[in-house]
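Example 9 (inverse folding). The structure is encoded as follows.
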């Protein structure tokens, strides 16, 4: 696993932008990979990847939301959301997009402000670190509650800890429960469900999008 390199991590910052101030935009219909968008009172049906005459490109769409892009800036729209000079913009959202390497989603991140390489694992109930990584991060994990966990090599000892912060891209969560295994496993830190359950996880073909829930 240590020989696997990250192909790509793109952080999409969906902040309120200048183009939303000059275009009156409302999403009036949402479908899988298609959206009906009204721009300055003109209605367009856009497929994913298609661009409107006003220069807006539909990046993704499902039954809940659409992501539109103009001049390299992306923004999330819910059904019926208005953006324009006569309307208030929605709360900015950050999307972290990942692409797989050999079928696995790998991403750099940090724990308590120190860099960590993660494997995104929706099958892991918790963020998990090996003992060497925890010691490098200054985590006194042996003061935590000792438990037994099942691994590929059998039953190993682990310690329950709480991490001050876990960050991936521009997404930072605090007070995240984690497990530290007293050994060499996992070789790469696991970004498990104690972190991922706080996010909205979506897939578009092979791409995985992570976004904070409200």
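The amino acid assigned to each position is listed next.
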């Amino acid at each position: 696993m240590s020989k696997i390199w990250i192909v790509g991590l793109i952080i999409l910052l969906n902040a309120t932008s200048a183009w939303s101030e000059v275009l009156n935009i409302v999403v009036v219909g949402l479908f899988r990979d298609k959206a009906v968008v009204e721009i300055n009172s003109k209605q367009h049906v856009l497929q994913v990847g298609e661009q409107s005459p006003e220069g807006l490109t539909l990046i993704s769409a499902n039954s809940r939301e659409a992501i539109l892009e103009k001049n390299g800036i992306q923004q999330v729209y819910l059904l019926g959301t208005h953006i324009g000079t006569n309307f208030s913009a929605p709360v900015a959202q950050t999307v972290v997009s990942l692409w797989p390497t050999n079928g696995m989603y790998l991403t750099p991140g940090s724990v308590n402000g120190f860099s960590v390489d993660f494997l995104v694992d929706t099958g892991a109930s918790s963020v998990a670190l090996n003992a060497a990584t925890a010691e490098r991060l200054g985590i006194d994990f042996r003061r935590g509650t000792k438990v037994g966990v099942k691994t590929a090599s059998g039953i190993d000892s682990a310690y329950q800890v709480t991490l001050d912060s876990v960050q991936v891209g521009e997404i930072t969560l605090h007070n995240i429960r984690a497990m530290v295994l007293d050994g060499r496993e996992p070789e790469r830190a696991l970004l498990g469900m104690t972190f991922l359950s706080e996010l909205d996880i979506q897939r578009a073909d092979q791409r995985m999008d992570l976004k904070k829930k409200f």
